[in-house]
Amino acid sequence: MAQRALIVDDEPDIRELLEITLGRMKLDTRCARNVKEAREWLAREPFDLCLTDMRLPDGTGQELVQLIQQRYPQTPVAMITAYGSLDTAINALKAGAFDFLTKPVDLARLRELVATALRLRSPAQPGDGSVDSRLLGDSPPMRLLRKQIAKLSRSQAPVYISGESGSGKELVARLIHELGPRSEQPFVPVNCGAIPSELMESEFFGHKKGSFTGAVEDKPGLFKAADGGTLFLDEVADLPLAMQVKLLRAIQEKAVRAVGGQQEVAVDVRILSATHKDLAGEVAAGRFRQDLYYRLNVIELGVPPLRERREDIALLAERSLQRLAAECGLDAAQLSDEALEKLKNYRFPGNVRELENMLERAYTLCEDDVIQASDLRLGDAPAPGSGESAGGNLTQIDDLEDFLENIERQAIMQALEETRWNRTAAAQRLGLSFRSMRYRLKKLGID
TM segments (predicted)? Predict the structure, then answer.
């Protein structure tokens, strides 16, 4: 049975253009001139896709987007807007539109959009196994997060994933990609803070052979590598302002020009971005462009820190210890009751990543496959909510120098991991000079 599309537009020539194009793609089409006729068609038969103009004689396309979201969530709907009506398109995406097109309609872009929309699976239901089991936890924040991921995977809207370091932002981005219509295409993650500023344009957009010293062959760049799929911009707040301008143009034009190239090349990528920084605060401080912020932050998705879902710690710890045992070919270790209680009372500034690193260390230290509280090497950190600040009860800390050195080591290791061991980028992230960073690495014995 042929797939079916509903076209909603009051201009006969636009309806005819869309009908012909979709017909050549082997789709059955139905046409409506206004919101009333569209409602009648939707009530009469199911559709695999809806294309609607924004301005209609008896209402707006956004009304249809909201109606379809509520009553026919299995039907992706794309908005057709006048050229330059970016705010309208963004509002439609926020309301639940799959994607948008601008007039005059680019037929290649239309065919691309339709093909992507028709690859959508039935809406994933949180808890039914279709939302990846890698996102562990049954706390209310995690149930809500899985539900939001399932919904956002059916859209092409740019998503800004906010959350602290180590909370799992890249995993969330991967799940949005894998549950969506681009799942068979590349997912390309890039740590924006780990690329030297002088190489950024080449890394993102590619370069032509001979365009600069060392360019011994053509390089496609990250946008081309992600063509048809998803580009995940991690730590996007670390982009320098000059690169932000070029990134904004590439996103708006859906095209890139390689360094040394003469022509722009069309690219089809979905943009997901993340940072542990307060991006709105970076905009207010003048370090991040407001226009790029609005392009990236069409929809914001917050990833909860581990301290806000303490009931998940036992499950996360169990799975992490099982993984460690499988990697080593040994029996899995168990947490003693005292050790588990200590984990639940720790604030985890490094979130899930810190928990995994802590358990890996404890796994190597424990005896008889039982991790005791002392194996966690936590010191006697005050319980959350106890009213004690980090320095409010030093009588429980055996050695202040060791305590402070451990905090410094954790901060430096986290920065190095997040920048893929780029020492210059890690130093910038910590607000240190490279000389100061080198001194601390030597002092702490970090190679």
Answer: none
